[in-house]
Amino acid sequence: MSVGSELIALHCIVRREVVRILRLWLQTLVPPAVSTALYFAIFGKLIGDRIGSVEGGASYLHFITPGLVMMCVITSSYGTASSSFFFVRFNRAVEEMLASPMRNRTILLGYVVGALVRSLLVGAIVVAIALALAPSLPLAHPWIAGLSVLLAATIFSLLGFINALYAKTLDDIGHVTHFVLTPLAYLGGVFYPIGLLKTPWQEIAQVNPLAHMIGAFRYGVLGTGAPGVGVSIAVMLVLTLGLSALALFLLGRGVGTRT
């Protein structure tokens, strides 16, 4: 399959995913915005005004903004990739892709890019809500902030794709969100600095990959909160490469597609 043909195939997958996201915007874009607006109103304003400044002298509203943005990005990217490819398997449309000259890397990249589009749209909406409540939100290191969001969204898009290969029902997809992603996000420092934890919880939190993602993004936005930002970026790069290799391996073995 030539490069031009691969690009056409990739464009078709991404276009289908983007059209689905925009057509179902009441389901794909509005719910995260509403729930995050409630977080900002309750925690950021009502409670935040009583807390005052936190780590690095930032207001509590500014402090929780990167964590809430990252939480929405990872849940959106995971949910999009997992549900999209699950329904492709469920409807047996995956057989058409496997019968075509389309390569596995094109299939994987198409669904990952589609999930990235939704997660970045959701992240932009959350940032807009935060700016409406706190117009003075800084952006200390734009490149670090952008890279951390892209890597985090890619990692959870890959995780969603891998889970879709194994999922038998929609419940198998939802269980990961409810019992894995949400607890890890809350324990990753969305609402509090990791440094407040006591031993051994602080050491355990350092093993949580979401703590690295939230910490790196918070450093990119506020300029504080991640003295080991290089380690956090390295962790995310390793996870991206490892999960990409695993997803391609599973596709090549026909897991969930031929068995």
From TrEMBL:
<dbReference type="Pfam" id="PF01061">
    <property type="entry name" value="ABC2_membrane"/>
</dbReference>
<keyword id="KW-0812">Transmembrane</keyword>
<keyword id="KW-0813">Transport</keyword>
<feature type="transmembrane region" description="Helical">
    <location>
        <begin position="143"/>
        <end position="166"/>
    </location>
</feature>
<keyword id="KW-1133">Transmembrane helix</keyword>
<feature type="transmembrane region" description="Helical">
    <location>
        <begin position="108"/>
        <end position="131"/>
    </location>
</feature>
<dbReference type="InterPro" id="IPR000412">
    <property type="entry name" value="ABC_2_transport"/>
</dbReference>
<dbReference type="InterPro" id="IPR052522">
    <property type="entry name" value="ABC-2_transport_permease"/>
</dbReference>
<feature type="transmembrane region" description="Helical">
    <location>
        <begin position="229"/>
        <end position="251"/>
    </location>
</feature>
<dbReference type="InterPro" id="IPR013525">
    <property type="entry name" value="ABC2_TM"/>
</dbReference>
<feature type="transmembrane region" description="Helical">
    <location>
        <begin position="24"/>
        <end position="43"/>
    </location>
</feature>
<dbReference type="InterPro" id="IPR047817">
    <property type="entry name" value="ABC2_TM_bact-type"/>
</dbReference>
<feature type="domain" description="ABC transmembrane type-2">
    <location>
        <begin position="23"/>
        <end position="254"/>
    </location>
</feature>
<feature type="transmembrane region" description="Helical">
    <location>
        <begin position="173"/>
        <end position="194"/>
    </location>
</feature>
<keyword id="KW-0472">Membrane</keyword>
<feature type="transmembrane region" description="Helical">
    <location>
        <begin position="63"/>
        <end position="88"/>
    </location>
</feature>
<comment type="similarity">
    <text>Belongs to the ABC-2 integral membrane protein family.</text>
</comment>
<protein>
    <recommendedName>
        <fullName>Transport permease protein</fullName>
    </recommendedName>
</protein>
<keyword id="KW-1003">Cell membrane</keyword>
